[in-house]
């Protein structure tokens, strides 16, 4: 048998079949992952990404969240120019620097965290929100720095601090530089508390790993959205480690509220009014 092949190196291009061709309706509809109802996407977005049939909370993009919760035109973004580097020259299935480049291009965000100042019903706040779509909201050096600056800015301006967390944890591509952010952000909260202003931590789905093990759990008031997965290691990892079946709903916000780990579960539609109420009381 010949060691070479006469087959062409470039395969002939095949036109997509009718089944493979993209539909003109693609993107107009969304399927609820909880009740399987098909929802007109525009209706879902108008309902702040909450299913009108079962009230399931779908992911809400960070900028849309900030726009929806803060007073109109009150948000001023800071530190947008900060970009993560590749201190370890890390590479897995793809080089880290290439992964960063492609993610920046597709999301038009420099990293997984947006920070700045704004107002909620007239109350000034130093605020930050995770962009989960950016590498699972993982916390690297830049995310840790921006979180730290949320508290430093709040201390300088004498503002309350609010952070909306949604993260898979520390960013493994930055190794120890990422893990250092857990201590760095926690220390920033310690300095911030000298200003006697509250820190409200809002835990979204999911909040796990190094983010959950540091500043996300250190709020003076800890709120969560319904059915959010919150914890250090995931349920599957814990089950494999202890070789036991976990209780139903383990690590969901309802389970944590029942066991005294969070202060309240606040549906998305009520979040703005609840935050304003807390700021009036303790801000």
TrEMBL record:
Gene3D superfamilies: 2-enoyl-CoA Hydratase, Chain A, domain 1. Transmembrane segments: none annotated. GO terms for biological process: fatty acid biosynthetic process; malonyl-CoA biosynthetic process. It is an enzyme of class 2 (transferase). Zn(2+) binds at residues 32, 35, 51, 54. GO terms for molecular function: acetyl-CoA carboxylase activity; ATP binding; carboxyl- or carbamoyltransferase activity; zinc ion binding. Residues 1-10 have a biased composition (Basic residues). Its EC number is 2.1.3.15. It catalyses: N(6)-carboxybiotinyl-L-lysyl-[protein] + acetyl-CoA = N(6)-biotinyl-L-lysyl-[protein] + malonyl-CoA. It is found in: Cytoplasm. Residues 1-23 are annotated as: Disordered. Belongs to the AccD/PCCB family. Component of the acetyl coenzyme A carboxylase (ACC) complex. Biotin carboxylase (BC) catalyzes the carboxylation of biotin on its carrier protein (BCCP) and then the CO(2) group is transferred by the transcarboxylase to acetyl-CoA to form malonyl-CoA. This is Acetyl-coenzyme A carboxylase carboxyl transferase subunit beta. It comes from Stigmatella aurantiaca (strain DW4/3-1). The gene is accD.
